[in-house]
Prior knowledge:
Elements: H1 3-22, H2 27-31, H3 41-61, H4 71-74, H5 93-112, H6 124-150, E1 172-174, E2 177-181, E3 196-200, E4 203-205, H7 212-220, H8 232-241, E5 249-251, E6 257-261, E7 264-267, H9 279-288, H10 296-305, E8 316-323, E9 348-353, E10 368-370, E11 379-380, E12 384-386
Parallel strand pairs: 8-11
Antiparallel strand pairs: 1-4, 2-3, 4-12, 5-6, 6-7, 8-9, 9-10
Helix pairs in contact: 1-5, 1-6, 3-5, 3-6, 8-9
Amino acid sequence: MSEKNETVKKISALHKSLLDQYSSYPEQDLRTQYHPDLSQLGWHLCHVSFIEQYWLREVVVGDDSRTSGLHKDFFPELIEKGKRGGLPVLADFDQLQADFNDAEDLLSQLSSAACDHPLMKNDYLGWFLIQHAEQHMETMQMALQQRAMTNVSEAVFTAKYFDPRDPVIPDLIIAAGEHDIGSDDILACDNEQPVHKVTLPEYLFASKMVSNAEYLGFMQADGYLRQEFWSDEGWQWNRNCQHEAPEFWQQDGQGNWYSLSAQGQSDIDANAAVSGLSWYEADAFARYAGCRLPHEFEWEAAMNSDSALMLSTGQAWEWCANTFFPYKGFQAFPYERYSTPWFDSQHYVMKGSSLYSGESVRQPSFRNFYQPTKRHVFAGLRLVQGL
């Protein structure tokens, strides 16, 4: 199969996955907002469909008959999250199926024809829409996680005890030198470009993410109560929120911790990467361990220096020390608001991917970003030390 046809195949599979999973949900579940930072499940479905129609039909073909009246409902900057659940089309799966089918047909036609629109060069738009859909599918998993936490089962769950562990100190030496950062791949977002070189001193990089058992050690060392482990802003946030464990952890009647997810209650895997941490918690754990969070350049350079290291990612996003910023020579593409609004020094970079991430983001150059207070994302951390 040609590369161009591959995008049609992939986006068709994504459509089928969305319809198979969500068409059986009660309408109320599709319209309910389970977290103030997360849109309703039904809105995400319709937004994915709208964006496909907008770029393929309105922008490339010049036909706005399907989209002109929907801008105010499905461009995120034009409608508040709290109002999105009341839109009448949110549970119309017949219409959603028809729009998905139309998008697949149109993408197939544009990919196989001699379309000279710049967005169709190297089938860029197809890959862009795949990445967009996969990112929303992960966000929908966050909403399902919050749905589960809202509707906690009354069934008694007895958790399996697991021992806390001391933090594992970074064990890989990354040599000082010049490193390539960024990507010019077809999947690269505008904020990953242009490719450029950075010079880094030698440092130690952890071959694995911080585990649940290691994080339990932080908790049992009164990590949430010891100000010396926290930045000033982090300590203030900590005192205001009064958290004592990661977002997805619950305690049984004996005080043992278990995990709550969209799949229900389950024992915590002591060896798996901890997830459900804010940047402040990740930073506090790194201080407790006598280490620090990596700058995103250190993270990317380490991954590029040893391709096998990427196999250690994928359990949770990994908070980095630095805020999200434009590379020198940055140019917004395919539209101004894709990255530019978030260069505000209030969003911290995350690298890697989570259990729910699509293939399109699983590359060293990809940059995710969230505010440091956010715990609903599937995020943990990896440690580094200077030498």
